[in-house]
Design brief:
The protein has 389 residues and is an alpha/beta fold. The chain is 37% helix and 17% strand. Helix 12 links the parallel strand 14 and strand 15. Helix 9 packs across helix 13 and helix 10 packs across helix 13. The longest helix has 33 residues. It is elongated.
Length: 389
């Protein structure tokens, strides 16, 4: 194993040339990027691919990303990008991003054999002088995958890399410890709107600012529905329990999460005792419920937020103006006619019969909108590529 210690601001050309030589002969290198240390091979070399996957304990179905020196090089391998994608990449690269693009690598390219079965390819242009020099000198894409064993924590310095892999490496380029272990932010450019597959060092709000685009989403493994009322002790916990019971009977039960919140800032409380009694009578258990105030985090994580009354949806629109597309008024959603009473009345302060009527109204309305919830759910499954078991 060869070892070079370099100055990240002024790496020696000899180290770059040695790394290129090792790649050309099918070897594995460790090199610094603008995020983590990477494991580098020539991904068009079948033997090198096998060595890399064995070294990391990585499944072949989990492809490595490719490092190049420019957007022009990406297009040289994958063909012309759309004007919109090219414009976006120009704003982000070089930088701490992995861009997932449609795999259009031609069968006559040496890379095709190892990457041709993948629908998408991750491309990196790190904001790192050594990476840029190496990409130019080598002249072909280089693998860029974190220098750790698959599924294990990212590492911060070369000593940890050596502890993992030791003499199984052919060349180590050491530029000192890394400052952040989050890795690159992976953005799927095949999605509309753009999807952040992994939020690394660069966060969602920073990407929105860089691209001047507000509707950028983070990949989800679940579909989240939130019911909202005032104190989150009567209407919304009953609605939450009703929908949970309905979803439990479907094939989507493991990917749908239902919760509730309130617009009032109150201490956590259990559901109202009459709400609990009526729910019990309908074989729905809400005894473990604790109220909470609606927050930006809850809104961010939600796919649909269903309000019990007009004042609730107005509150949400006022306090979370960037998320208006998520807000639904239960009794008005998908109706073709206007209602004279579009709100579910608050049962607080009323007797058990009023609570019973409220529960029945909620059940009827949730049953009515269930097909529309399924339609939104299926869109989310497709967009997020969620596996339904």
């Amino acid at each position: 194993m060869k070892y070079y210690k370099i100055d990240p601001e002024n790496p020696r050309l000899a180290a770059v040339e040695k790394a290129a030589k090792v790649l050309k002969t099918g070897g594995i290198i460790v090199y610094p990027t603008d995020t983590l240390y990477g494991l580098g091979i020539d991904p068009s070399n079948n033997n090198a691919i096998q060595k890399l996957y064995t070294l990391k304990g990585r499944l072949k179905s989990n492809p490595v990303s490719l490092m190049v020196d420019s957007i022009d090089t990406i297009e040289a391998y994958s063909g012309p990008l759309s004007e919109e994608t090219h414009h976006r990449l120009m704003k982000l690269l070089p930088g701490k991003f992995t861009a997932l693009l449609e795999n259009t690598i031609s069968p006559n390219r040496a890379l095709y054999e190892n990457l041709g079965k993948q629908n998408k390819i991750g491309w990196r242009i790190p904001d790192n002088y050594f990476c840029n020099m190496l990409s130019i000198v080598y002249g072909k894409p280089i693998s860029t995958t974190s220098a750790n064993i698959s599924g294990k924590d990212n590492v911060t310095d070369i000593s940890q890399v050596l502890a993992h892999f030791g003499n199984k490496l052919d060349l180590v380029i050491d530029s000192g410890p890394v400052k952040n272990i989050s890795g690159s932010t992976i953005i799927d450019f095949t999605k509309t709107p753009l999807m952040i597959v992994r939020e690394g060092e660069v966060k969602k709000h920073e990407i929105q600012a860089l691209l001047n685009e507000s509707d950028i989403r983070i990949k989800k493994d679940f579909f989240n529905i939130v019911f909202v009322c005032s104190g989150n002790i009567c209407r919304s916990p009953m609605a939450e329990g009703i929908l949970k019971a309905m979803m439990a009977k479907t094939r989507f039960r493991n990917i749908v999460r239902v919760s509730s919140a309130g617009t009032l800032q109150l201490p956590p409380n259990h559901a109202h005792e009459l709400a609990e009694k009526i729910a019990d009578a309908n074989e729905i258990n809400i005894h473990s419920h604790l109220s909470r105030h609606i927050t930006q985090t809850i809104v961010d994580e939600a796919d649909i937020i269903i309000s019990m009354a007009v004042d609730h949806v107005n509150y949400l629109r006022k306090h979370f103006p960037n998320d208006k597309h998520k807000f639904i008024l239960l009794k008005e959603w998908k109706r073709t006619r206007q209602l004279s009473k579009p709100s579910v009345a608050d049962p607080i302060g009323h007797d058990i019969n009023f609570f019973s009527d409220t529960f029945a109204e909620l059940h009827s309305e949730i049953k009515r909108i269930l097909p529309f919830i399924f339609a939104e759910l299926k869109k989310s499954i497709t967009y997020n590529e969620i596996e339904v078991k």
